[in-house]
Specification:
- It is built from 12 helices and 13 strands.
- It is α+β, with helices and mostly antiparallel strands.
- The chain folds into 2 domains: about 170 residues, Aminopeptidase; about 190 residues, Aminopeptidase, CATH 3.40.630.30.
Length: about 375
């Protein structure tokens, strides 16, 4: 068995890295394959905005012609500077159930980080703020939301064996049309909206959404700045995140809570096209695009990937307006189920509000930490 650092200028090396999960999960009915074209983007140093300010390395463990595991290790210099840290991230960890394989991968990641003067490591944590966080540790029987990680149950043991411990958990949960909201909640939301002047901004089409992306980026950076893991997105990163969002968005599902001309909060929902991605098997051609388009039109599930209030409007009742709009999104669309995606466990207020809406937590993703 040997360890290789991927040469990201070589197409064969990149393919070796991005194709590994397709074999590992070939017989798993829940795994949702990424499009190969999207999976390779973090390895494109000349195009991905992460490399304008930071660096990363990619390793695989192999025996003969078989790839047994992979890992990415990141030095996010902006995050470290803004947060006052000296930490690496690990990401895109996948491996067979073999402690020797995973130890080899983590040792390579640790050594790479130490050589850059870093003293700790956290992850899984990705290249962009919008990337999925953590390893799945509960809810393996459920299909993941779009762009959210799925992994085998044994991964938790492999990560702990590398000397890492829990940092925090992210909870995802389901709400169905049957739950609904008690009338008193609607009444409170309506009264707050009238008294405070809150209104809902929706979008006509994707062109209007595209014009608002720079403004949405400023809102996003403001809303989450106090979260422990957050690093404000750059203009170039926002462009990538925006195009990713537009690719799967339906304009009527993207809503802003307004107070006059100012944005107070947001509810970002997206059709769950995971079934189409499964049928596409990583490729748009020849028929992958058709399966994805069909899922986009016929899915009965919606993912809530962004729900938040700006700090200036917290404690003013805007949360009632925001969560009423979340529920309205489910009721007014042709959807039977919504999934609230990755709410961090220390965000006790949001967890409590969502539980009051009838959301049933059914998945947990975990991030880990270790000293180097």
């Amino acid at each position: 068995m040997r360890l290789y650092e991927i040469d990201t200028t070589q197409r064969r090396d990149v393919a070796r890295f991005v194709r590994l999960p397709f074999g590992l999960y070939a017989n798993n009915p829940q795994w949702v394959p990424p499009l190969l074209s999207e999976a390779s983007k973090p390895l494109q140093r000349d195009k991905h905005p992460f490399y304008l300010h930071s660096d990363a390395a990619f390793f695989v463990a192999a025996s003969g012609g078989e790839t047994l595991g992979r890992i990415a290790v990141l030095e996010h210099r902006r995050y470290n500077r803004i947060r006052g840290k000296r930490e690496a991230f690990f990401y895109l960890f996948d491996a067979i159930d073999d402690g020797q394989v995973s130890a080899m991968l983590f040792d390579a990641a640790f050594d790479w980080a130490r050589k850059r003067g870093l003293v700790g490591i956290i992850g899984p944590k990705g290249f962009l703020q919008a990337d999925s966080q953590g390893l799945l540790v509960e809810g393996f029987e459920h299909r993941p939301a779009v762009n959210i990680a799925y992994n085998h149950a044994y991964y938790d043991g492999l990560v702990k064996a590398a000397g890492l411990i829990k940092e925090t958990d992210y909870h995802s949960g389901l709400i169905t049309r049957q739950e609904g909201l008690p009338q008193r909640f609607w009444d409170v939301a309506a009264k707050v909206a009238e008294r405070r002047g809150f209104t809902i901004k929706t979008f006509r089409d994707k062109d209007e959404m595209r014009a608002w992306i720079p403004h949405i980026g400023r809102i996003y950076n403001t809303a989450f700045m106090e979260h422990w893991e957050f690093c404000p997105v750059t203009e170039q990163e926002l462009a990538v995140i925006g195009e990713r969002m537009l690719a799967i968005a339906r304009p009527e599902l993207i809503k802003l809570v307004m107070c006059g001309d100012e944005v107070a909060g947001f509810v970002f929902a997206f059709p769950d096209i995971s079934e189409g991605l499964q049928k596409a098997r990583g490729r748009l051609w020849p028929l992958g695009w058709w399966h994805i388009l069909r899922a986009f039109r016929t899915t009965k599930r919606v993912n809530f990937n962004g729900v938040g209030l700006l700090p200036a409007y917290q404690g003013l009742g805007a949360n009632a307006v925001m969560y009423a709009e979340l529920t309205r999104t489910l009721l007014e669309g042709d959807y039977t189920t919504g999934e609230a995606v990755q709410v961090e466990e220390r965000n006790v207020k949001s967890l409590g509000d969502m539980k009051a809406l009838g959301i049933r937590w059914h998945k947990v993703h975990r991030t880990y930490r270790g000293a180097l």
